What does this fold into?
Amino acid sequence: MSVLLRLLGAGLRPYAGSVAAIAVLQLVQITATLYLPTLNADAINYGVLAGDTGHVLRVGGVMLGVTLVQMTCAAAAVYVSARTAMALGRDLRAQVFARVQTFSVREVGRFGAASLITRNTNDVQQIQTLVVLVFTLVVAAPVMGVGALVMAVRLDAPLSLLLVVVLPVLTVAMGVIFGRQMPLSASLQQRVDRVTKVVREQITGIRVVRAFVRDRHEQARFAEVNRDLLDVGLRLGRMQAFGMPTAMLIMEFSGIAVLWFGGHRVDGGGMQAGTLIAFLQYLTQILQAVMMAMMAFLLSPRASVCARRLGEVLDTSSSLTLPASPVTELHEPGHLELRGVGFRYPGAEEPVLRGVSLTARPGQTVAVVGSTGSGKTTLLQLVPRLFDASEGQVLVGGTDVREMDRTALAATVGLVSQKPYLFSGTIASTLRYGRPSATDDELWQALQTAQARDFVEALPDGLDAPVAQGGSNLSGGQRQRLAIARVLLARLDVYLFDDSFSALDAATDARLRAALAERTARATVVVVAQRVATVRHADRIVVLDEGRVEASGTHSELMHASPTYREIVLSQMTTEEAAV
Ligand SMILES: Nc1ncnc2c1ncn2[C@@H]1O[C@H](COP(=O)(O)OP(=O)(O)OP(=O)(O)O)[C@@H](O)[C@H]1O
It folds into this structure.
């Protein structure tokens, strides 16, 4: 609850004017609401019962005016409340989005993409709903409740004693009903998360589902989480459905009691008929106020769960700490060095990298090879700080990457990952992602180097051909080549290619390497590859084995010095081919 209050307090500060306007509108509206039963009593007592039609008309006119004021203020209050809540929702979404943007892969992995999406949509929506409710009901409830109580006691103190019985009964009944809803609300949000997660996974993995004809299995998996959500939703719905009739029952019984006792008092001459009716209306208003306050309790547990979930995101700092005085200028930006680097994934027992040291200079191509799972991808990811090394240092241009300005690091180092991600748009917008100012000519040159020119030229719209989200309308090899062209356009000093040629046929791979060597002649290139042909001509080859550097050297040196390297090579070519 405290997180909710903190979020609302901070979030509503910019809208203090609107909040004040809502308070004033509500106050006028409630005053009018409280005045109406008194006017009604007056019309009955001194108009209807006295046979004075003129009085009825006069008071009726005033009642009409008061009602108009009440309706206008109520409508305006709802309008301003909705606007303020929407604005608050927009701000919250922007804050959460901005925070998630600072997260490293580690934090995104901790929350999970599905949960982050639910938090920034559904959870914010719940808070918005609560804010509207607070502004329209909760703000009004205490004023209306106390006001109606004072009016009722003023009208007839003895009859007001009934409230001593009715109010606790209603409060306890509602408290029990709403109290039981709290845990259900919390689990409802978790189940919404689970549905999002399964849907996301199934849509992303649709090709695998089709390939293995696992539609039924996936449907069953979805049905299970969907049913879980329905179960909790129904249980919550049942509690809510139970709440309203219970409240109505208590209100109706209270009305009957007022009429019963009040009727006797009217009979005995201790009370006027109009006063009894007004009293009944005040009683209804008091009970309504209690109900309204309770309604807030109904939504507040769910909203406070949502606020806690949003608070978790907003209070999470990126594990990639920013340096106090970031280095922006590098003397020799292409100089890459890893010094005794060790890395352990969060939660993992064993380190993935241990004591890895290597250097690469401008103009050099360093290849990293090793069996699958030996830590090659992890190693590359440490350079652009997708993760930070647990031990040792990664230096670019002689500066620890942790000391560098983020933008400067991004302008120096580019990574083409194993499965590159392309944003939706066109070929041109995809390529310009790293350098928006690139001309069409430059785009074609980069495509030429990446061996992607032919296929882009063959597309009906060329550079304007559409690219679907994730590049799903392109083949794996096309995606890889576009990603290579994209990074080349950014004109960097250090290029890291993580198995980026794996989806290319051997001939295209060879052409691409030749073109790349020309284009990146003055840059530092680190290539991770499974295919020996891709790496054998590298200036230096580093062999990783279970996270350690087993050996490093040229192809011919390693053929003698590294059993792991020899094994990899001979699994792909004959001894004669390897010796060439
Ligand atoms: N996000 C992660 N969380 C926990 N462990 C991970 C994570 N990513 C990779 N690992 C583990 O780290 C080890 C090294 O993975 P990495 O992807 O660096 O290997 P690789 O040499 O690139 O393999 P491949 O050649 O198959 O791509 C593996 O054992 C893997 O299970």
